[in-house]
Structures are given as C-alpha cells and as structure tokens.
Amino acid sequence: MPAIAKLEAERKVKNAEIEKKNKARMKANTLLATLMTQRAKLEESGAVPGTEWEKVEGSIAAVEAELAAIENDDMGSGATARGNEGADREAPAGVVELVGLVGRVEGHLSLFPEDFRPDLHDQVEKAWAMAKKGSWTRGDPPRIDSKLAGIRELERWLSEVVRSPGVVELVGLVGRLEGHLSKLPAGFRPDVRAMVAQARAMAQQGSWTPEDRRLAGMRKVERWLAEVVSSPGVVEFVGLVGRLEGHLSKLPAGFRPDVRAGVAQAKAMAQKGNWTPEELLLINSQLERMRERERWLDEVVRSSGVVELGGLVERVEGHLSVLPADVLLDVRAMVVQARAMAQQGSWTPEDRRLAGMRKVERWLAEVVSSPGVVEFVGLVERLEGHLSVLSAGFRPDVRAGVVQARAMAQKGNWTRRS
Fold this sequence. Notes:
elongated
C-alpha cells in the first residue's frame, strides 16, 4: 500500500506540473499573439524602426524564449524517459519551428470564441502531439517537414484575421446569437436565423471584414435576443405565437379573422423587443389566454371535418360570387350556416353534412365553368330588371318566358338537354 500511495502522490505532482506548464504556455501564446498583432500594425503604419517597435520586438523575443524553455523542458523529460529505448535523443530541426508556429496559432485562436473553427483546434492538438513526442525515429523528420507548410499557412492566415477587430467581434456575436436562438422555437424569426447563418459563413472565411453598419445591426439583434431569452414569459409567449401561426396556416384564410388579428398583434409584440416594464406585464398577463387559444386551435386542426368544411365553404362562396346575388338562395343560406359552424372551430360536422357540401361544391364548379350558364343567369337578371320598369300587363308572353327561364336558372343540376 505505501508503494501505491507513493506512486499516486508522484502522479498528482506530475499532473500538477503539466497543468502549470499548460497554463504558462497558454498565457505566453496569448501574449505573443497580441504582440505580433501590435508589431504588424506598427509595420503597416511605417513606425519601423522606432522606440515602440523595438520595445515590441524585445517583448516578442522574451516571450518566444519563455515558450522555448517550456517546450525544451517537456522534450528533455521525454528524452530522458525514453532515452534507453534506442530512439534518437536530439529533436529534428523542424520541431523548433513547429513549436513556435503552433504556439502562435494557439495564441491567435485564444482570441476567438471556443467554437470558432473546431477543425483548427484539432489541427493544433495533433501538431502539439507531434512536437512534444520526445523520442524520435528516422521517419519523423519527413512527417514534421510535411506538417510545417500547412501550419505556416495557417499561422499567416490567422494573424491576418486577428488584426481585424471586426471579424473577431463578429465571431463572438454569431456565437451568442446562435446560443439565444437555440432557446427559441425553430420557426422563430427565420429572417434573423438566415442573417446569422450568413454571418457565420462570412466569419468562417476569416479574411472578410464586415462593415460597421452590419456589425451595428448584429449588435442590436444580439442585445434584443438576449433580452428575449432572459425572460421566461417572453420565451413562452414567442413559442405560443409560433404554434398559433402554425395551426392557422392549416385552416382556410377566412377562418376566424378575429383570432388571426389577435395572433398578428401578438407577433408584433413578440418581435418588438426593448419592452417596457408595462409591456412585459402585459405579455405575462396574456399567457393563460394564449395557452387556451393554442389548445383550442390544436383541437380544431386535428378535426379533418372542420378543415375540409372550411375549404368547401370558401370554394362555394367563390363560385356564388360570379352569379347574381338572388340566384340559388337556398344554397346561399346553407353556405352561410356552414360558415358559421366552421367559424366555431370546435364543431365537427357529420359526414352527411360534408357529403352534401361536397356535392354542392362540385355542381357549382360545373356551373361557373360553363360560360353559357353564367351568361344565361345574367340575361335572366337583366330581363327581369327591364320588365320591372314596364307596366304589369306589358307582353305577358315575354314575362312568362322570363319566369320559366328564372326557374331554369335556379334549378341547378342541369342535364345536357336542359
């Protein structure tokens, strides 16, 4: 047991040393990335050579020396541990450059959110593993040299990216926006979701610098969404609005205009943002009513009879609109009654009533598709209008013919012979 305890204590000490070195390496890499950015800006401004530039150069040299000491310590430990296994103790020439490059890449990445380019973080881990191997074989130098070109290019690209504060800020904004949107219904503000997707694609390019105007818009949206998701009542309210819109989309356009108007008002409130305390109280006070309305509409759309009846009513009303107002009064009365029933929403029609409406709709579709029938009905209407301004005894034969025509027009279900 004492031997096991001793090994455990040694393991803890070793892990603590490794953790300490990792923290020191991360701190040095972050500082190095900042200094490299400062040096690049001084070079671009033409302040080279100069007091400030020399100061930055000295700081870079000191940090690189610190990093080299950390890595040499790591590799020395590895060589000592493996030195008797027949492997080369001296690291290949490319390892020193690889360590420096990977350190700078890690420093650049530390300035971005953790989820920025996960593929790059994976490359860094693999490069560190190669650089810190500690025991080298003859096959290692070619593999290291092949890795160097890609890491050099990556470091150059990242150094350009981090010089643009706009890109760094944009990446952070995109990450926070995606976090906010993940807490909201999938159908909430598709325009904002599309904007965030586009911004992520642009930020991933790295070399793209957004205009201040675009960043200002993203900042505003991020602040608004942060406010939305910080209020449980608002999040539920937004979700209810989305579900209500989904239910209404499955019903005829003329179904319950009062409900549609209420949902439109609620949507405007949900998308407003910057709510006052009074508006937040109003939102919370409406939640119970919204829940009840959502449950009711959910039941409505589950009733295929109600949905079908609503569609039939709309189509029949459309057919009747091309005929004179006093034609087929019995059908018009039936449609008015059916519309009232459909508007109730919770009413499920019997199959018999639906069958009758289907029959009427098919027949009216046939009527209005026949120009001759439509013209015939219109002529009857105009003839009656003319006769109404003449004396009652004028041309009884004509009046009799118009009466017969009126009966024919209102009959419906005409045969081909009719």
